[in-house]
Amino acid sequence: MQVSTPGRRDRPRRPAHFSLAAMEAMGGTSPGPAEVTEAAHASAAAVVGVGRAARDPEVTARLVALVDELGLDTIASLWSARPAGSLPGALWRLYVLREWVRRSPVTASREYAAGMRLAEANHVIAGVAEPPGPAELSALVDAILTGVYEGDLGVALERAGAFCRVISAGRAELAHESDLADPQRGRAETEQAATMLTTATDLERAAASWRAGSLI
After folding, report:
1. Are 149 and 51 a contacting pair, CB within 8 Å?
2. How far apart are CA 207 and CA 127, in angstroms?
3. Mind listing the pLDDT tens digit for each residue in 12-48?
4. Confidence (pLDDT) at 14
5. Within a 10 A sphere around the Cβ of 64, how many other Cβ atoms?
6. DSSP letter at 83?
7. Is 57 exposed, middle or buried (CB count within 10 Å of its CB: 0-12, 13-18, 19+)?
């Protein structure tokens, strides 16, 4: 329960930590599959609910940088095993995209630049500033996550899906070049392009589910 203090604007509490270690410490035993699933969906709903109710740039900024505070492993322990068509599954994919761009900004910008000419419509939907350098891609993934908490979540998911389609096209294009010098590397890049395309489809389906009121 949130207590009001005169003269101070109330702010939503930070999302609770629902790590598996914390659950085990509270219960004394390892949580079962049902408890893990419940915690995943409850935590995802809580995070989105806090962000969308707060209407506070500070809260949004902290949620966008959630991985920086909790670590990717903590987020993965809850959300990574959930289906792509669920809210925790969709959030997991968004945070992984942000972390990848942060860790590999040069690679991300190279792949995006290679793909934007092959997927022009998706480039427009994604909304990356040109030229799409590391700073521009970092700003994009942050803007997408900001949209989850401050804008239309469906639009945010569609932008992320479009971004993934451009990256996939770029990876496939670069894989053709790699095949000439290193066929093994070319195959690996082709597989990575296919994986990113699957992520794009997952995010687009999640956007449709959100609009239908079935993304939980």
Report:
1. yes
2. 17
3. 344 444 444 544 444 545 668 888 899 999 999 999 9
4. 44
5. 23
6. -
7. exposed
